[in-house]
TrEMBL record:
<dbReference type="InterPro" id="IPR000863">
    <property type="entry name" value="Sulfotransferase_dom"/>
</dbReference>
<keyword id="KW-0325">Glycoprotein</keyword>
<protein>
    <recommendedName>
        <fullName>Sulfotransferase</fullName>
        <ecNumber>2.8.2.-</ecNumber>
    </recommendedName>
</protein>
<dbReference type="InterPro" id="IPR027417">
    <property type="entry name" value="P-loop_NTPase"/>
</dbReference>
<dbReference type="GO" id="GO:0000139">
    <property type="term" value="C:Golgi membrane"/>
</dbReference>
<keyword id="KW-0735">Signal-anchor</keyword>
<comment type="similarity">
    <text>Belongs to the sulfotransferase 1 family.</text>
</comment>
<keyword id="KW-0812">Transmembrane</keyword>
<feature type="binding site">
    <location>
        <begin position="99"/>
        <end position="103"/>
    </location>
    <ligand>
        <name>3'-phosphoadenylyl sulfate</name>
    </ligand>
</feature>
<feature type="binding site">
    <location>
        <begin position="308"/>
        <end position="312"/>
    </location>
    <ligand>
        <name>3'-phosphoadenylyl sulfate</name>
    </ligand>
</feature>
<feature type="binding site">
    <location>
        <position position="292"/>
    </location>
    <ligand>
        <name>3'-phosphoadenylyl sulfate</name>
    </ligand>
</feature>
<feature type="binding site">
    <location>
        <position position="182"/>
    </location>
    <ligand>
        <name>3'-phosphoadenylyl sulfate</name>
    </ligand>
</feature>
<feature type="active site" description="For sulfotransferase activity">
    <location>
        <position position="99"/>
    </location>
</feature>
<feature type="domain" description="Sulfotransferase">
    <location>
        <begin position="90"/>
        <end position="334"/>
    </location>
</feature>
<keyword id="KW-0472">Membrane</keyword>
<feature type="binding site">
    <location>
        <position position="190"/>
    </location>
    <ligand>
        <name>3'-phosphoadenylyl sulfate</name>
    </ligand>
</feature>
<dbReference type="Pfam" id="PF00685">
    <property type="entry name" value="Sulfotransfer_1"/>
</dbReference>
Amino acid sequence: MLFKQQALLRQKLFVLGSLAIGSVLYLVARVGTLDRLQPICPIESRLPPREPEQIPLRTLQFKRGLLHELRKGNATKEQIRLHHLIQQLPRAIIIGVRKGGTRALLEMLNLHPAVVKASQEIHFFDNDQNYARGIDWYREKMPFSFPHQITIEKSPAYFITEEVPERIFKMNSSIKLLIIVREPTTRAVSDYTQVLEGKERKNKTYHKFEKLAVDSNTCEVNTKYKAVRTSIYTKHLERWLKYFPVEQFHIVDGDRLITDPLPELQLVERFLNLPSRISQYNLYFNATRGFYCLRFNIVFNKCLAGSKGRTHPEVDPSVVTKLQNFFHPFNQKFYQITGRTFNWP
Ligand code: A3P
């Protein structure tokens, strides 16, 4: 009897043990394959050929471990010295466009082991006071990184601020510039929604979008309204082209980044000469948020803050059409200059 019970116990322990070992093996295999998943990559002829793999595999572990500690301020000076961590000027900047999806783009690119993001908008080039503090001030705002990694900053005000192209050119004339755009009328409404929310928070009243976007005297589109002007992408881009050749820009489709982010991110990886490391595993659709969220690893996921993905107010359809007609010729020019065409009305 005793012998029978012991045999039963041994059998149960064996099954439990096998299950535990099986789970551990599965987790190890799953984590191990994350880096190797090679997603399908649509190729744009304008993009450079992929360079040979240069990023050591160890980087991912370091990035998730040490750099995370650094961000929290827990890493010691000794660790910084030991691992040759440095604060580097950005080699790529997301210069705009406001409400185009600049935060989502930065956060998603940060999934790449060779990319390190500057978490805050630094506003170095568009703010005279900050600019007067000099380039070392700017560098000190950058996160620590390994020498082979690239730092990326985003400040969407750069795109529309007069002085910025020249200032960035003076820092680095070969810098890579990312512009994320959305259908211009939608972007303008998104811009309006953000300002409206700010006013409401301060218990202030605000005009309706229709009143701001259309001049009530002429019934024409009000080009003095900032949300309208910002959506005339070609006007701003033309100022940048006085300093940088078109090849130094990459246009990201902000509407597609919402619905299907991976192909857009893969195009950016190529533009930045990075091996393709962001995979479908890193992005999952969160039905509650209604947006894609980020998966860094088995334990760490995150969605963007609630301020991203606001509900837009309903806009009079005749005003929408008026704006779409207004933007149409500017959009055509934008397609022509950039070589990237969108299905905007
Ligand atoms: P809406 O709030 O109008 O929906 P920015 O970061 O430049 O301010 O852009 C904000 C926009 O990013 C949001 O505009 C949202 O649609 C878009 N976006 C793109 N991908 C997103 C994501 N994964 N999560 C939340 N917002 C995202």
